[in-house]
Amino acid sequence: MKNKPSTLGEFIIENQNQFRYSEGELSRLLNSIKLAAKVVNHEVNKAGLVDILGSAGETNVQGETQQKLDVYANEVFMRTLKDRHIVCGVASEEEDDFVAINKDDGGNDHKYVVLMDPLDGSSNIDVNVSVGTIFSIFRRISPVGSLATKEDFLQKGRNQVAAGYVVYGTSTMLVYTTGYGVNGFTLNPALGTWYLSHPDMKFPSMGKIYSINEGNYVHFPKGVKKYIKYCQEEKDDRPYTSRYIGSLVSDFHRNMIKGGIYIYPITTASPNGKLRLLYECNPMAFLAEQAGGKASDGYQPILDIEPSELHQRVPFFVGSAEMVTKAESFMKKYS
Ligand code: AHM
Ligand code: MG
Questions:
Q1: pTM, two decimal places
Q2: Nearest ligand by distance to the CA of 248
């Protein structure tokens, strides 16, 4: 009997022929992400030891203060993807615009674009709480040989060929999908090797955890307020448990393993929601659907939304399918 692949490297090679157009380019791309994640992990782990904590004194395009580790993670991922000549373009939550990799870099003959949030959950960096990296991969629309265009990045989530996240938690994990289920790999820091620790991850269809920043309660739409009250009601298997880390990656990861729902709705302060469609919601939605869960903006699947701008925000409901469906029914009823 053939041995099952046990490391991420083996797994990528083993599954390479699932892709219709595969010439190994996507595999090389995934290998680069895996390498950059190790470099960032190393830096996150020693964040308390070196002078890397705190604000870098810059603000990003959305007016938010960037943390030094955000800047560092962005640089590592950008550099890895650019220098290795494996993509034709990259867009990052931390960059004002997408970067098309030009001919001199040899990038324009490549098929894929990457969109990413290099360090998500930045408010948790200073306090030793889990943060993450989120990535999303599309095939370009523009012809191979030309420069990547905005249209390559503004594709609906349904077109993703791969997506994943890294959670820098009590242990560091890389979880990803290429449209054939979701697999999770845990980093052995002593060896620098990712081992397949969570094969074929699935959201339980129903859970008992709801994750939402309840401090914003007064600013939530009525459907969300009513759904929260439903979660807290003493009836059947309720009340549910409230768990909110404030790092999407970590909240999602826990809910996928235990069963639960994460919600970041519109609020008075963020009338379109806070999370970004392209860097956060699309990749997490692809993972959710691949794991048997569901992702919605409260009314429609996230993956069906046609993006109109790079830094677009959307309300986000993601998790166990039955819980998301229930939350949607409240949105519909009280809209
Ligand atoms: P970030 O990309 O600036 O870190 O923002 C995204 C994060 C999510 O990880 C998290 O779920 C959410 O913002 C927390 O926001 P809030 O502090 O408003 O609850
Ligand atoms: Mg972020």
A1: 0.94
A2: 1
Quote the pLDDT of residue 248: 98
pLDDT over threshold 90, residue 125: no
Mutate which of 115, 275, 311 for ligand 1 pocket (most atoms within 8 A of beta carbon): 275
Report the residue among 93, 135, 247 best suited for mutation to probe ligand 1: largest number of ligand atoms under 8 A from its CB: 247
Q: What is the distance in A from the centroid of ligand 2 to the CA of 120?
A: 4
What are the pocket residues of ligand 1 if the criterion is a CB atom closer than 6 Å to any ligand atom? 64, 117, 120-123, 213, 246-248, 274
As a CATH number, domain 209-333 is: 3.40.190.80
Q: How far is the CA of 327 from the centre of ligand 1 (A)?
A: 20
Instruction: Kindly tell me the number of DSSP H helices and DSSP E strands found in the chain.
Output: 8, 15
Q: Any idea of the CA torsion for 124, 267, 166, 210, to the nearest 10 degrees?
A: 90
151 three-class SS: helix
User: For residue 58, how far is its CA from the centre of ligand 2 (angstroms)?
Assistant: 14
Question: Is residue 89 within a helix (H) or strand (E), and if so which, with residue range?
Answer: strand 89-92
Average pLDDT over residues 249-259: 98
CATH architecture of 8-198: 2-Layer Sandwich (3.30)
Cα–ligand 2 centroid distance for 121 (angstroms): 6
Contacts of 142 (CB under 8 A, 6+ apart): 88, 148, 149, 151, 152
Which of 291, 335, 44 shows the shortest CA–CA distance to 167?
44
Domain with CATH 3.30.540.10 in the chain: 8-198
| Residue 1: predicted pLDDT | 47
57 falls in which pLDDT band (50, 70, 90)?
low
Show the CA angle centred on residue 159, arms to residues 156 and 162, nearest 5°.
Answer: 120
From-to residues of CATH 3.40.190.80 in the chain:
209-333
Neighbours of 202 (CB within 10 A): 16
Index of the ligand 1 atom closest to the CA of residue 93: 2
Q: Rounded to an integer, what distance in angstroms lies between the CA atom of residue 78 and that of residue 94?
A: 10
